[in-house]
UniProtKB/TrEMBL annotation:
NCBIfam families: PRK02821.1 (NF002761). GO terms for molecular function: RNA binding. A probable RNA-binding protein. Keywords: Cytoplasm, RNA-binding. The keyword RNA-binding applies. HAMAP family: KhpA (MF_00088). GO terms for cellular component: cytoplasm. It holds the Pfam family KH_KhpA-B. It is found in: Cytoplasm. The gene is khpA. Belongs to the KhpA RNA-binding protein family. This is RNA-binding protein KhpA.
Length: 81
């Protein structure tokens, strides 16, 4: 449910909503949600000084109802060496 909610929120703020991918995995520290977006939308999801990403994390933490959850915005730029 958290991954679907995060995907819905992110699709609402990007220019390329079809490129949004949210994957969830569980480990000993709790659930981790990885958000992947089109490279042109990365700045929009992170926001100025990380404000948008912080707001997304706050909303997801509230929905998690006290369970540990981590939200990572993954940079998928393959041009780096």
């Amino acid at each position: 449910m958290l991954a679907e909610a995060l995907g819905h929120l992110v699709r609402g703020i990007v220019d390329n909503p079809d490129a949004v991918r949210v994957s969830a995995r569980n480990d000993r520290r709790g659930e981790t949600l990885e958000v992947r977006v089109h490279q042109e939308d990365l700045g929009r999801v992170i926001g100025r000084q990380g404000r948008t990403a912080r707001a997304l994390r706050t909303v997801i933490a509230a929905l998690a109802d006290g369970e540990p959850v981590r939200v990572d915005v993954v940079d998928t730029d393959r041009r780096r060496s």
